[in-house]
Amino acid sequence: MSPEEYLLPGGISINALPKISLHDHLDGGLRPGTIIELAEAIGFALPTTDESDLGQWFADQANSGSLVEYLKTFDITCAVMQTVEGLTRVAREFVEDLVADGVIYGEVRWAPEQHLTRGLTLDQTVEAVQAGIEAGIAAAAEAGHSIKIGQLITAMRHADRSLEIAELAVRHRTGGVVGFDIAGAELGFPAHNHRDAFDFLAKAFLPVTVHAGEADGLESIRGALFDGRALRLGHGVRIAEDIVVGRQDADDNTYVTLGPVAQWVRDREIALELSPSSNLQTGAIAAWGDDLLDHPFDLLYQLGFRVTVNTDNRLMSDTSLSKELALLSDAFGYDVDDLEVFQLNAAQATFLPLEEREELADAIVAGFEGV
């Protein structure tokens, strides 16, 4: 089935524009039909075996206003990703779906420690996912599409295996791994709990992104920057808590004051991996409102932060990168030039070597010039 097409005013297809995906969870991007087939093979009970109804169930469950409740949907997706066959198939289809959405480079993040219940080793899970990625890339090439994919190996912040997972990531850096991530329940599980892992990664020069500023605020972001040496912030939307917007005088002129954390993130061009639909679902923007118009995305963009647009979990949010860009365009009046800025921001923030980042930027520019 072809993905839904999203258009800018003037009829420009967002789907056809070259895009970069930085924050996209493997276990959050399964096709409902694949879940049903894999669950049947292992005897795992689902809420429904109707493909359409199952997709709607995930969207409804995820739309809770709580990150903790949102994360419970992953009990099902992870359950069907415990074998080589399951992991490889999900990874291959993941790449195929990115290609269909116009993505030319993607970083897929996932937590190997959550895929060991049927006897796989950590290394076997990484190899299985890489096999699926390579199969997806090869299928895309045969169809005339070019895409590159890198793995972000994720450790769960509520667990105590982060050093082991960091070592796993470094071990596979020549086999598809481009960086490391910490994810899971944020509040109450600070980055400094994983300082040994971050120290190891720093010594190995493996780039790090950290989920921060989603379910917790500025202290979590501070921890990601100080303890994690994060080059990107996973979501990071609550950096807006460190920004004061006020009225300066009787003429209603406004002023903006950045606190020290926001100033650092902006001035150092640390990318924000913003995921608009997900941020609404998990309550990450509750301090500002419950509508996309309330999202601080536009404030951060106008102030010069390196904002990027992401899906987070395409299944749970019933979304795609094209849809997220369309939603932002509708909410804030963005045009094709704005969308190009977001993609160039993402190109510069990838965990690729400089030369490859420049090649991505050139591809973005060429693709947008062609519309």
From TrEMBL:
Adenosine deaminase domain location: 18-365
Highest taxon of source: Bacteria
GO cellular component, one term: cytosol
SUPFAM superfamilies noted in UniProt: Metallo-dependent hydrolases
Alphabetized InterPro entries for the sequence: A_deaminase_dom, Ado/ade_deaminase, Metal_Hydrolase
Record key words, sorted: Hydrolase, Metal-binding, Nucleotide metabolism, Zinc
EC class: hydrolase
GO BP annotation list: adenosine catabolic process; hypoxanthine salvage; inosine biosynthetic process; nucleotide metabolic process
Family in the record: Belongs to the metallo-dependent hydrolases superfamily. Adenosine and AMP deaminases family.
Protein name: adenosine deaminase
